[in-house]
Please model this.
Amino acid sequence: MISVIVPVYNVEKYLPQCIESILSQTYANFELILINDGSNDSSPTICDEYCRKDARIRVLHQQNKGVSSARNNGIKHAQGEWITFIDSDDWVDKEYLLNFDVDKTTADIVIQGLCYRNESDVELAGLHVVDLPNMTLSSIATYSELANNDVLSLGYPWGKCYRMNILKANQLFFDESISFHEDHIFVFEYLNCISCIKLVRGTHYNYRYSHNPQSLSTKRHSWNELICASDRLIAEFQKLIVHYNLQNDAYIRRIGTYCISPRISALFNLYADKYPNRYSIMKVLFANSDIICRYYEPSSLRMMILMTFIRLKLFMLVDLYLSVLLAVKAILKR
Model:
């Protein structure tokens, strides 16, 4: 059985479409767990109404603790051998669960693609549609396909089916102390615990791309939360390089850049906010500059200059350079 976990928070506009799409699955052996994370709109009522009508649904109500807490609550109550996550403002095609083909696979995780949609449910042609090939990666000879199919950039929790026994054996949960890249950290941690990955063709997950300025994706995170996320990503990524014998240097640097970018953002935030002791904090941030410079690929002349100063541990020049950059930026905004 597949346990479908859906965290719910103030999504009354989209929740019925999400639930209906799950209940319409051609694959019958599933349970749906709706976790109401302290919603203050009609979402709790919608969850309860669907629960009364369909025995496959369970509803968990909790105080607002965030999406990671809601997902973790779902994991703790799940009864299936497999777990998949769906966001409550997204929806899935009727073949979504069937496409995982979990009843026949020996893989530890099954990953399929997705399609980006706008608020009107129309496909967004300008955004990347993830469509993977049918392929099983289970040996050093096939692990190179992780890079060829850009699997490590697919850090969102949905679009994947995870084995419950692996989650339990390794006590894998989402980190509730951070709200930035916590999903990617979870995926990295899981991949470090397994050896067989199955990719399946299909774009049956419909991700609603929102321009909501209040969404977590546009939230400005604190510098220490950014550092924490970056540290965790780098640590897990280094394990992945060894675990899967990754050899593609260009790909390693691309994913490494992604992992280190929150640390660079933290540095800019420190100076933009004129944070006290920012110079001392900056020196601690980049004390281990060898690892950072090994993986980070600057995308502009501005960043190349900054990373050169960091690599050489010329922290007084970093301090001066950032101060000048931000001063110029402030003048241009006037």
About this structure: The CA atoms of residues 230 and 260 lie 6 Å apart.
